[in-house]
From TrEMBL:
Residues 5-119 form the Tetrahydrofolate dehydrogenase/cyclohydrolase catalytic domain. This is Bifunctional protein FolD. InterPro entries: Aminoacid_DH-like_N_sf (IPR046346), NAD(P)-bd_dom_sf (IPR036291), THF_DH/CycHdrlase (IPR000672), THF_DH/CycHdrlase_cat_dom (IPR020630), THF_DH/CycHdrlase_NAD-bd_dom (IPR020631). Pathway: One-carbon metabolism; tetrahydrofolate interconversion. Pfam families: THF_DHG_CYH (PF00763), THF_DHG_CYH_C (PF02882). Catalyzes the oxidation of 5,10-methylenetetrahydrofolate to 5,10-methenyltetrahydrofolate and then the hydrolysis of 5,10-methenyltetrahydrofolate to 10-formyltetrahydrofolate. Transmembrane segments: none annotated. Keywords: Amino-acid biosynthesis, Histidine biosynthesis, Hydrolase, Methionine biosynthesis, Multifunctional enzyme, NADP, One-carbon metabolism, Oxidoreductase, Purine biosynthesis. It comes from Bifidobacterium aerophilum.
Length: 293
């Protein structure tokens, strides 16, 4: 029987554990705080940031909101980043992307204090991930790749020796998940496919695990996967449903693949909730590290 990797329930279990850890931290005089910087009013970004603050309220983490108008320039955004770097109430924070056209996003990310990088995407933290093939990592980890690994772990799916095909080379997961999957603790073999890859379907058919992060609705078809494959559906597209007369979120994996798979993550309801849970985990872990200073 195919296993449905329920990201909502798994994330709920993680948040329950985090809530207990937050209570213990507060008892020792440390209150974790998550900061967000939202520039403009992009509907998707507004909703995503609101969800993060709702998650904070659920587990007892303090919320720190910063908002700037859509015409904010580099200096305005940089000033808020520096403010959060210096704010002792802000344990960790994120700058919601995308930023307005003309603003160098990488330059803004470079300004983030790596110790407060709740997304785990600062160059320093990515460099630490590259260097630490073995043992524990004490720097924040990228949320979406970590969410994928935690979701599989919740269902006792061992990736040791598995061939993993990653579709898409975006920084959020495509370029970073290979760093985590090839660590000794996971020990998988990773192939990264992108627009320059010849015969992507051939790579997919040979893979034990497919991580689809292209943003191409229904790209992964049943004839592209082998029997018993594990499917992680990360890509998000908005597709108009003619029958319902409204837009719907669709993932990269065609639902017709499910019967052929050993396990799959639904989209929505799979990796998305796990990404949000890992953001909270990063912030709580940052606060816990303060105890060791």
């Amino acid at each position: 029987m195919t296993i449905r990797l329920d990201g909502k329930q798994t994330a709920a279990n993680i948040k329950a554990n985090l809530a207990e850890r937050v209570t213990r931290l507060k008892a020792r005089g440390i209150e974790p705080g998550l900061g967000t910087l939202l520039v403009g009013q992009d509907a998707g970004s507004v909703k995503y940031v609101a969800g993060k603050h709702a998650d904070c309220a659920e587990i007892g983490v303090h919320s720190i909101r910063h908002e700037l108008p859509a015409d904010a320039g580099f200096d305005d955004i940089a000033a808020v980043v520096r403010e959060m770097n210096e704010d002792p109430a802000c344990t960790g924070y994120i700058v919601q992307l995308p930023l307005p056209k003309g603003v160098d996003e990488n330059a803004i990310i470079d300004l983030i204090d790596p110790a407060k990088d709740a997304d785990g995407m600062h160059p320093y933290n990515l460099g630490e991930l590259v260097l630490h093939v073995r043992g524990d990592i004490t720097t924040p980890l990228p949320c979406t790749p970590r969410g994928v690994i935690e979701l599989l772990g919740a269902y006792d799916i061992d990736l040791n020796g598995k061939d993993v095909c990653v579709l898409g080379r975006g920084i959020t997961i495509g370029r970073t998940i290979g760093l985590m999957l090839t660590r000794r603790a996971v020990n998988a073999t990773v192939t990264l496919c992108h627009t320059g890859t010849r015969d992507v379907a051939d790579h997919m058919r040979r893979a034990d695990v497919i991580v689809a992060a292209m943003g191409s609705a229904g790209f992964v078809k049943p004839d592209m996967i082998k029997d018993g494959a594990i499917l992680l559906d990360v890509g998000v597209s908005r597709v108009f449903d003619e029958e319902a007369g409204r837009w719907r979120v669709r993932g990269d994996v065609d639902k017709a693949c499910y019967d052929k798979a050993y396990a799959y993550s639904p989209n929505p309801g799979g990796v998305g909730p796990m990404t949000r849970a890992m953001l909270l985990a990063n912030v709580v872990e940052m606060a816990e590290r303060q105890l060791g200073r």
